[in-house]
Amino acid sequence: MTKSYPNWIAGEPAGGDERRPVLDPYGGESIGEVALASAADLDRAIEVAREAFVVMRRQSGREREEVLRSVSGGIGERGEELVDRMIAESGKPRRFAEEEVRRAGSIFGLAAEAAKRFGEEQVPLDVPERAEGAVALARRAPLGPVAVTASFRSPLGSVAHRVAPALATGNPVVVKAPSRAPLTSLILAEIVGRSGAPHGSLGVLHLASDLAGRLAADERVVTLGEPLARRPGGGAEMIVHRDAEWEWSLERGAVTGFAHAGQMTVGLHTIHVDDVVADDWIPAFVDRVYGLRMGEPDDPGTVVGPLIDDEAADRVERWLAGARERGARILTGGDRQGRFVRPAVLTELDPETEGGLPSRGGPVVVVKRYLDFEEAVEKVGRSGRAIQAGVFTHDVRRIGHAFRTLEMEAVTVNDIPTFRVRSLRVRSAMRAMTAPRVLILDTAH
């Protein structure tokens, strides 16, 4: 009998008349079905969140900390279940699913710590003569119910990165679960429901596209943009200079470029290699990519799993065929077997083809040579596809030039461009979910 999964509204499961199957990307079998939320379900979830906001906005930092620590502990206790469900519904290889679960637990832990200290500061006002003796207390107040859209690329992490800062600041959340991996977020909803969080703190809905658009446009909720929401499938680029640590750059580039078949939240798609070492580095990189294990996601050694569905595999296959017709050289990979596409390394792409790199993810990395480091940095900045960059060099001057020049979310030196500082992201999200309120005290009268 097919297992049915509900929506999560008002702290409890909520059914629905219309259902949609959830398929295992690896084997193609149904692993269950989800109840699609109706317009009435959506309206109820938003109204419950508004009611929860009345309570949550008045919570103390200690109360919020206790809830968040409970959620962090719950993720640890149900970690194996979360990993198994993520593998089944998204095809994410076990090693990356386990990392995502660990990361989600730490995100709630960081938010718990931040909740104790966030929100208040004293502001001196006695600079103008007429304000002599006056002081101000600034407190950041929650904005209200927050609407977020989760991604199949990170079925737990994309929710945790929004829900943890929201609970830390007193904002309830309504989550649109990813349509192609909707089940993992339900476990998190259960964990939050048992954490002592106020009734209605988190809703998880399975929405058809028209209702998803309605949620995003509803004036009763706050929809947050970049950098908090991030672009799903945003790109990253690497620069490998002649003084880079070879083995380290090869390993990090290969795994990062093809982890989860290139479907990570931030995916590496282009590597710029110093021409002085390119004749040796590029063949070594191709060999490293060729040796990556592709296969069953549940195997701990697998790096490259299946693409999320047939449509995604079709898209990558078409792009590779078009690139080959326009003169690109495929140094390894590119052949397709069902939903698997063997990791492909390309070179000599024309600009038009490069601009059409599989924007929604795929196991494809383009390698390019450069003669001048500053020119390579400029090309990364001009690409329009990268939101993060990794620079492999020990030259402090070149590091400084890259950081000053690249107007991106992050520049990482001697590590993968997808590296993220979680504590900084949590605090940035907390600020984005709050607005300052000021109490002015005249202490002179």
Share in β-strands: 15-25%
Question: What is the spatial order of strands in the main beta sheet?
Answer: 14-17-18-13-12-19-20
**Radius of gyration over C-alpha positions, nearest whole angstrom:** 24 Å
Rough outline: globular
The secondary-structure class comes to: alpha/beta
**Overall pLDDT level:** 89
Quaternary assembly: single chain
Which regions have little confidence, pLDDT < 50, spanning 5+ residues? 226-233
CA distance, first residue to last residue: 75 Å
What percentage of residues falls in helices of 4 or more residues? 40-55%
Largest sheet: 7 strands, mixed
Tell how many strands the DSSP assignment holds: 21
Number of helices: 14
Helix and strand layout, with pairings?
Elements (H helix, E strand, L loop, with lengths): L3 E2 L1 E3 L2 E3 L4 E5 L6 E6 L3 H18 L4 H17 L1 H12 L3 H24 L2 E5 L9 E9 L3 E4 L7 H13 L3 E4 L7 H10 L8 E4 L3 H9 L4 E2 L10 E7 L5 H13 L7 E9 H16 L19 H16 L3 E4 L3 E2 L2 E2 L2 E4 L3 H4 L9 E7 L2 H10 L3 E7 L3 H10 L4 E4 L8 H11 L1 E9 L3
Parallel strand pairs: 1-5, 8-9, 8-11, 9-10, 12-13, 12-19, 13-18, 17-18, 19-20
Antiparallel strand pairs: 2-3, 4-5, 6-7, 7-21, 14-17, 15-16
